[in-house]
Specification:
The complex is a heterodimer. Chain A contains 19 helices and 19 strands. Chain A is of the alpha/beta class. In chain A, the strands form 6 sheets. Chain A has a 5-stranded mixed sheet with strand order 2-1-5-3-4, with helices on both faces. Chain A has a 4-stranded parallel sheet with strand order 11-10-13-16, with helices on both faces. In chain A, strands 12-19-18-17 form a 4-stranded mixed sheet, with helices on both faces. The mean pLDDT of chain A is 95. Chain B has helices at residues 20-25, 30-36, 40-50, 62-70, 92-99, 101-115, 131-144, 175-182, 211-223, 225-230, 262-268, 302-307, 326-340, 346-363, 369-385, 389-393, 396-404, 406-418; strands at residues 78-83, 119-124, 160-165, 206-210, 232-233, 236-237, 239-246, 252-257, 260-261, 278-283, 289-291, 299-300, 316-321. The longest helix of chain B is centred in the last third of the chain and has 18 residues, at 346-363. The chains are: A alpha/beta, B alpha/beta.
Chain lengths: 575, 419
Amino acid sequence: MMINLTIDGLPIQVEEGTTVLQAAEKLGISIPTLCHHPDQAVKASCRICLVECEGLSALIPSCAYPVFEGMSVKTHSSKVYNTRRHVLELILSRHAQDCLHCKRSGSCELQSISQEMHFVDSPRYPYRARSTEMDDFSSPSIARSAGKCIACGRCEYVCNEIQQVHAISKVNRGFEVNFVPAYGRPLGESVCVNCGQCTQACPTGALTIKDDTRQFWNNVGGDKLMVAQVAPSVRINLAEALGEAPGTLSTGRLVTAMRRLGFDMVFDSDFTADLTIMEEGTELLGRLQNGGALPMITSCSPGWIKFCETYYPEFIPNLSTCKSPQGMFGALIKTYYAEKLDKKPQDIMSVAIMPCTAKKYEAKRPELGRDGYQDVDLVLTVVELGRMIRSAGINFADLPEEEFDAPFGLGSGAGAIFGVTGGVMEAALRTVYEVVTGETLENIEFDAVRGFEGVKEATIQVGDLPVKVAVAHGLGNARKVMDAVRDGKAEYHFIEIMACPGGCIGGGGNVIKNWKRMQPRYEAIYREDRRLPLRKSHENQAVQNLYKEFLGEPNGHKSHELLHTTYTDRSRLLR
Amino acid sequence: MLQETRIVLRNVGLIDPVSIDDYRTRGGYEGLRKALSMTPDQVIKEIETSALRGRGGAGFPTGKKLRISNGVEADQKYIICNADEGEPGTNKDRVILSNDPNTVLEGMAIAAYAAGATKGFVYLRYEYPYIFPILEEAIENATKAGCLGKNIFGSGFDFEVDVVSGGGAYVCGEETALIASISGKRGEPQFKPPYPGVSGLYGKPTVVNNVETLSNLPSILEMGGERFKQIGVPNCTGTKVFTVCGNAERNGVVEYPMGTNLKDIFVAHGGVKNGRDLRGFMLGGQSGNLINPDQMDMNMDIESCREAGCVLGTGTVMVIDDYNEILDIVENIMTFFIHESCGKCTPCREGNIRMHELVHGINAGHGKLEDLDLLEELADTMRLASLCALGQNSSYPVTSSIHNFRPDYIRAIERGQRV
């Protein structure tokens, strides 16, 4: 049913159920919001989006209020402006006053609303900080500055409703409200899986990606060889972090920028993504043929791994033992590559550029290193790399394009699509099909596992075997799949799970997203796949050479030593 | 001398609270029996005729509320009795529940039949633990006697009641927060719409009514809406259970017709204790109004109070003697709201503490005249912008005291400036 209303005197007709905010947007009227998030349910708690509705004495939150027939709304009357401004003043008098050196300066929603509302006076209330005792820098991935929290509840929503990790909850009442892990534990010792989706949801600088750029600046140009690996989705998302449109592919400029920053070697994680497919595909075939734990579940997403270790420890045997592409790359750099250069592992600084905050945690896992050193020394997110490029005064927009370095510079389209939900599954199917049947796959694009639907299922005929697969992205969807498997309601051979909504292109280390921004990123990654001459992992000659020269065969002795890993039951975190 | 009119309190002190026989001897469950002989629509009509309005503070017409839920198709509907009587200085629900639980239960059953619900909850204030066993026993006895439970009076109508304890939060008296609390969530108000009557507990149509409201239903069914309407005043019918407290000579819970004059109530309760002077009244609960003795000639019903710039609220009449300072009282009330704000919406979370800060500053001698303007402006913001009634109304003690006791504020400000 269509509803007629007027906003600021302008008539408009919209669908029943439309909110006043949405109707106003259609008229080009923008209303400030804070607790509202396009991917979240209504909270109506910040009260910054209030508007006046004829016939109602109180103001109404436009983000939540559904339109009704004959409604007459004013979005900037004296009453609206003054009330909104006073609400803003109340928030500002509680909010840390350090915009000059805040990570979110320039991308802070509160800051931009203050500017839009032309709030240039000092708040009339004395500044009362939210307790800094609640600051939390214990996590390797996420930093929490309590004094910047405006209690909008967006982090709580994404953590509990979308990701269903239940790491952050609202505690205390009234003025004392805070968002912290259960039992007052620090984030680093909580069930938090480091996915960083809360930092994507936070409108201010209260929850941010832990910044490790100083470690780069302290080491660049020093004695250590700076070796970088760059994850598939970084080339999709970096340009966006530097102010370009979402989905701007910048592979060549990315490599140039990193060389100019001072990296000695810039390698492509697409390479180890292909390697992962060789190992994981072989592992899957082995389990199918020899009766291993099924369904086998992918292991490239470190947020998912910790989630599984914490909430579904009974499925640890089902996890692929393959390290993530980052983990494989780290091991190769510190062994094979170090040997090749005749360097000690300690003389190499292994840096990973990732779309992911959980990779910072993964790099610190004790099993991902040997002889007292870690395979990956430093993980920097897309956002951090963007900051470094800015700090170095590199004009990203005008950079020439360069190629990744050999011997790890070659990657297939199958490796590239690791960056999107369904990508690992599709890459594995491209290879497993051809290895098993010996035939060439006619249509290599598996549409059934593509797209942003929360849980995708397909049955793929591979030779005699109908392989049943499922793909889930976002941990809330992972729960659905895992519960179904646990309760015997679904049977699969192979499951791909990515912790972040949309996969790595929606990772916590990227520019802040919503589903609308995700679409161009999604399209870009498949564009990259189609652009590459190679589109199947097993056709990657560099990978084949590595097996010939160093590793032997997939799942062989050397592979097991370097490319596979173990997991730990972490369910004690729930107690 | 003013005499009580006891409808809600008709059995208080006369029966064993948990005895179903005692209750039935005095006509108990006859209202429900009559309701069950009618159609739900007829029952709602009868309640509409009575013009009963909710006694929890907002004064929403009870018949209309029932009709909304009645009109929604659902496989399950709920009735909730809001017994989270958290308003300081209000004890009416406690008196009703502990002395005559069956009146409430019968009212719930009537409301359930009218709305099409088969399951009810009494959400009992955390601080009333001793009422819990009374209610449980009363429910058990009534069920055994066939007045509750399956196939009541052979009519085919089922109605079961559970008692749920609150967790001690004042805000859970707000219906959406109450529903969140029953469903095991943090007790925070939710945005409306959807209203509970359409989508409430577990997403099902839910009628939430105050103890006193429900306690009127048996009598309305028995005497008929027309007769009920004769009590009280035309736009606010029936009686009101008042809690007279503070420095009155005789404090207590009493029932007078709606529209009874405050002065008469004050006199009936012996005036100020120990013959002291009257400083003023706090009316309607903590989020009510502070008035001075000159404003005492006020009829106590929803509309008359509103016209006088006050709220009837929960019907609390707190008498304040001249040993108390108004600013101390306001400060104390704001401390209460700081503690009880759930912290969800900005104006209430941040506003109450600022309000307290300003009043405390004035009271401590650091105030300025401009602070009064800021207080008024802040009160406007909280009233217009808060999510639920807590934040919308918590500024009333401040604004009403600034209006009605302005000299007290001015004196405190000037005292500070002299030092």
